[in-house]
Amino acid sequence: MAGTTSDAGKSVLVTGICRWLARQGFKVAPFKAQNMSLNSVVTADGAEIGRAQAAQAAAAGVEPTAAMNPVLLKPGSDRRSQVVVRGRPVGEADALGYRDFKDRLRTVAAESLAELRAEYDAVICEGAGSPAEINLRPGDIANMGLARAADLPVLVVGDIDRGGVFAAMHGTLALLEPADQALIAGFVVNKFRGAPELLEPGLDMLRRVTGRPVHGVLPWLEGRAIDVEDSLALTAERTPARAPVQGRTLRVAVVHTPRISNFTDIDALAVEPGVDLRFVSSPQEMGDADLVVLPGTRATVADLAWMRERGLDTAVAERAEQGRPVLGICGGYQMLARRIHDEVESRAGAVPGLGLLPTAVAFAAEKTLGRPVGSAYGHPVEGYEIHHGHSVLDDGAAGDAEPFLDGWRRGAVWGTTWHGALENDAFRRAFLADAARWAGRDFAPAPDTDFAAERKARMDALGDLVERHMDTGALLRLLEEGPPGGMPVIPPAGVPDV
To answer: Mind telling me which residue stretches traverse the membrane in this protein (predicted)?
Structure first.
């Protein structure tokens, strides 16, 4: 599944196809050879992979593994990324240095795909960005490079809501070299709003000028987002408005730092009736929020500096001094410390934290990956950890602080290293009730909100979308027979064969 652009709907469509195939009785797995994302998760065997692939595996009803996302790039700045191979970090690289990894990574991707194909009835592969990024084609391992190496049929999905979808689809095909074009089996139009008959003339022309079928027109579906890859997708679509509980509302502000990571932690808050959730990047936007969340980040020190430039540090500190709730998760928890020493991510050395918890943070070269279990507010809690920073009590004294999910709490300030904790329903309700009490809000969480059921319903909705609006017979033929032969070639605009 390739896309005309990033965020065209590749991840969502792969999730839907996995769900549909699993419901037909197939054993199916997702695969993304190379993923650039700050939204990751830890598998049962301790490997770090993109959270989108974990969600796709859940849609398929299988346990996620490192083979489903063998290469994960985690940007730490505009120029450098941590390279994670088969779930373990192997180093840092900029765009030029990354070329030195390519031969090894190509082999790792091919071996991982072969592993999945040997175990599963079907493997649905997701591309990265667009296959028409022709400047990257010689070293490509995730788009047409993968498709050609493994002889995979390719569908191209385009987001019609952005406009220009027909030009994007035709242009994507035309920019590919002939051997790559031969693998393009058809198109899928995504996020269509309106009367289907108005679209038909455009579809007819697309079929004529490309010689390829359109395998589906997917209508706009509210609330379809599931564990997306990057913060470009942090829109109102992720946080649909929920009816308040008897007129009571809890206002939650999530600080949207430049390197925000694992922002899916707040999805469980968004499903709560009465929770008004928004992302903020200034004290003015934070405004009258009852609860402020400092989420995870791939660059704790740099994002803390960004907060200071905007006065967000002062705004958060003033809230805490007033006894108004603040929750820090992973990197956000590290920011709450008195001091931070980082010679790993930022290499900035000693940096003062926000000083809202009696802790000190030191960054270690070895990354901590785990799936801890524990309890809080008398309820069992499961989560996952992904961090280099380690927090300890500063000067060894807790004072008036108390332990909280491998972190600390002092008054209305909570900090934890655990991602995913808010997905535990009973714990989430107890935490929100406590936060509301500190904020002086007349709010009580609904007693029956089930986050796992909400995610399952979204996956089922995507499976329904595929079943109702795609040519599923054509999908099965592509899975059984591979790329269709005899596809016409559009003369590329002077693009040489690689």
So the answer is: none
Listed in sequence order, the residues at least 6 apart from 286 whose beta carbon sits closer than 8 Å to its beta carbon are 253, 255, 280, 292, 312, 315
Catalytic residues: 330, 419
CA distance 16 to 8: 14
* Residue 491 resides in a domain: no
* Band of residue 232 on the pLDDT scale cut at 50, 70, 90: very low
Say what the pLDDT of residue 89 is.
92
Note the pLDDT of residue 212.
Answer: 97
Q: Are residues 289 and 405 in the same domain?
A: yes
The domain that holds 137 is classified in CATH as 3.40.50.300
The one-character DSSP state at 419 is: B
Region for 211 from its dihedrals, namely left if φ exceeds 0, alpha if ψ lies in -120 to 50, beta otherwise: left
Dump pLDDT digits (tens) for 118-148.
999 999 999 999 999 988 898 899 999 999 9
Q: If you average pLDDT over residues 484-492, what whole number do you get?
A: 86
Query: Which three-class secondary structure state does DSSP give residue 98?
Result: helix
The reply to whether 302 and 430 lie within a common domain is yes
Q: Where are the beta strands (DSSP E) in 269-372?
A: 275-280, 291-294, 296-297, 326-329, 339-342, 349-352, 359-370
